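Page 47, continued from p. 46.
Same chain as before, 253 aa.
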Amino acid sequence: MKGWSIFSHSVSMVLRNFQAAIQIFLVPTLLVFAVVFAVVYAVFQSGIIPVGQAVNMPLGSVSTGFLLQMAAVWVVVMLISIWGVVAWHRYVLLEEMPEGWIPRLHTSNILIYFLRAVQLAIVSVISLIAVAFIGSAFAEAAGYFGVAILIVLFIAVALFLSRLLVILPAAAVGRAISLSDALEATKGAIPALFLLGVCVFLAQLVVELALSAVAGIPVFSLVLQLGFAVILSLLNVSIMTTLYGHYVEGRPV
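Result:
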């Protein structure tokens, strides 16, 4: 039941430190919203993407310069988001208390965290493409049995990638951990990670059911949706923190 222990510990972490979470994430979150709003407003004001045609606009009609600018904006948004995430990891793992409403800016840790996240994204894409090719061949050749194999392969890849997540909190606290180190630290963690994944899935399912129940009340539904999005995001970050603390540092859960 270690998977449940990790999940419940992460939930407790969020609930016990909710005030600190607000102090850490409020300013970065507001900055992200401000950047996104400013960029969207500027794009529509400039006429690059006419109002009402954004969805139907072919990619080939968008200039390379515009795409590069959007990529730069994405990097900025990611770095601002990681600023808060790094502060949260350090608050939990190093007891680095937030001072006021602006988290401490650990520039080197933020940049390393970003690069490690990109590294994980590349590994994820390569793994998923490989599974898609192999699994689709099985599915085409063996029908429903092949589809079952494809599902098992995707679950296996998800568990493999979950074992690598500990490199992110490590980057936040300034500890260098390679992918092989992460796999070594999480050896034997597959059953716990599988149960943890089931718990996260069920939590998201409960959220979806709650949102569907209030879908007829637009304003309340929007507020609830934003609230749940923030809580689930914080929960996911806390799960990564717990995984690192337990499997790398040997902390109990």
